[in-house]
Amino acid sequence: MPDGDVLPQGVDPGKASVARMYDAMLGGEHNFAIDREAVAAFTAIDPQVRTLARANRAFLGRAVRFLVESGVRQFVDLGSGIPTQGNVHEVAQAACPGAKVVYVDNDPVAVAHSEALLADNPDATIVAGDIRDPAGILSAPRLRELIDFEQPVAVLMITILHFITPQEDPAGIVAAFREALPADSWLALTHATDEDRPDTAAAVGQLYRDRATSPVTARSRTEIESLFGGFELVEPGLVYVPLWRPDRAEEVPENPSQYWVYAGVGRKDA
Ligand SMILES: C[S@@+](CC[C@H](N)C(=O)[O-])C[C@H]1O[C@@H](n2cnc3c(N)ncnc32)[C@H](O)[C@@H]1O
């Protein structure tokens, strides 16, 4: 969205939005000057943040293909973001036509662009919702129309839970979604960590507190692993994002901990 377009309702022009910043990191066009300035400040802290964003997005694609191969035909993508390359419905429906995808986001720009993109897709939709209100999301009529909770569902929480503060109880949010899922359902998530790069995480935390619509809480490996309570992590477990089932060995960087985001996929315990 070029600057000067009419802002969707609910957009705060004085704050960089976490959704639009991510769009800018990925080279998208649905962001404003305030977002690009925040990404420039982020890049000054971590020069490879755009590479990290692309690696996170690549994990999303690998995880969705893995889940389709594992028999999943329904996806709920929480914090889905502004549509970009390799959206979940594109990956899932390429591997399995008719796969159902419900996107959820609380960013008005993400919701508006998703609605436009999905207008002609009967098997995918977007719900404007806040992950801090699992009951509201799970009862949304659009979600209920597409998702059959008698069949396995994959819930995706890809770089969203670090936008949830400890007071907002990320583990409780995951548990609320888990309880709604039948057996053989899945959770895929990525999450920023302060495990090996505490200074970077602290500086980025300050940046988001100062400029963005949402603060960031980076967490330790143990804290992130505990979010998988009630799910069994599949191989290779919780790892830095490029290490999760890479398509090619050349894609694995020399020092994966420079990618300060953990990734994992878990199956709901019987
Ligand atoms: C970094 S983007 C990630 C997009 C996509 N999941 C990916 O990883 O490629 C995070 C997204 O989470 C959304 N988000 C943040 N907090 C949220 C909340 N409480 N409820 C719903 N969405 C939220 C943001 O609007 C943004 O679109």
Automatic annotation (TrEMBL):
<dbReference type="Pfam" id="PF04672">
    <property type="entry name" value="Methyltransf_19"/>
</dbReference>
<keyword id="KW-0489">Methyltransferase</keyword>
<dbReference type="InterPro" id="IPR006764">
    <property type="entry name" value="SAM_dep_MeTrfase_SAV2177_type"/>
</dbReference>
<protein>
    <submittedName>
        <fullName>SAM-dependent methyltransferase</fullName>
    </submittedName>
</protein>
<dbReference type="GO" id="GO:0032259">
    <property type="term" value="P:methylation"/>
</dbReference>
<keyword id="KW-0808">Transferase</keyword>
<dbReference type="GO" id="GO:0008168">
    <property type="term" value="F:methyltransferase activity"/>
</dbReference>
<dbReference type="InterPro" id="IPR029063">
    <property type="entry name" value="SAM-dependent_MTases_sf"/>
</dbReference>
